[in-house]
Amino acid sequence: MDYYFYQIAAYYVNPDTDPDTGTMTRKSNLDLPQEKSDNDTHILIVDDDATVRFLMNEFMETVGYRSLMAASGEEALEKLRNESVDVVITDIMMPGMDGLELTELIRQKYNCEIIVMTGYSGDYSYEEVINKGASDFVFKPVRFEELLLRLKRVLRERFLKEKLRRLAITDDLTKLFNARHFYKQLKHETDRCGRYKHPLSLLLLDIDHFKSYNDTYGHLAGNHVLARLGETIRKTLRKMDSAYRYGGEEFTIILPETNGEEARNAARRIADAVIAEKFEPKPGTTVNITMSIGVAEYSAGEELEAFIKRADMAMFASKQSGRNRITFYSPEDFS
Q1: Would residue 22 be called left, alpha or beta, if left means φ above 0 and alpha means ψ between -120 and 50 degrees?
Q2: What are phi and psi of 124, to 5 degrees?
Q3: pLDDT in tens, 268-294
Q4: Could you confirm whether 75 is annotated as catalytic?
Q5: Are 60 and 84 in contact (CB under 8 A)?
């Protein structure tokens, strides 16, 4: 245990001192954050040895991460249910649930990375641990310098994976979610609605006279409108809401825990925000944009296609009745 105390002491005395040699070897890529509170990365340390747990927690906080501790796999799962965690660092050999079983359960239920530790190098292979779902594997006694390097790599890969995932579901022009992600998210929300009996509403929006705008001012000016409206729509939404570019000049918005009347009010806020935007497609020319909006509230057991079609037909009715309108269709109206 003196090994761990020595490493902690080395970091407190001089964070650029190698714990084994006492020499200055680390470069700027391992510099400590100036303000620990600026770092929102959360680490969960799982080890039945209280001393190891405490010292690793001290080290993580010393280098600027926010750290949580658990003495068992069961306690770790309880922490994960109640806390946001980016990386779990767990021992393998623990009473009750071992680290590999914990790793499998985390992979099934939670979006976080896992670094597994063991002092039994002959009993576990790297391939076995990685195949269980771990992001990396280290042997005890753990050199904190090595652990920090591995942790930074795991976090960097996590960031890149999330960035790639976001790119795959995001429309390049408007920065809203794309249509492919819309269908997946709407299925998730209708399932949730059925489970918890919460209301759910959908908006479908179409820019009025957009073809004429494009023909008059060109596609670059049209793209500018789409990008600005994407930003305007995002600013009007609550955190739980999500907006999508549905195709061309059409947008759709999923409003969880929102009934039809509340959805109409949300549509009105969006319509007002859009018409307040002023566009200047050429010097001396100012243009206001309007949108036709359809509103539908989900009916229990309704097919996804029927729900979307109802919002689409409500939007079409807004177009037909003069544009710059909001129309709500219930299942009874649509039948």
Answers
A1: left
A2: -135, 140
A3: 999 999 999 999 999 999 999 999 999
A4: no
A5: no
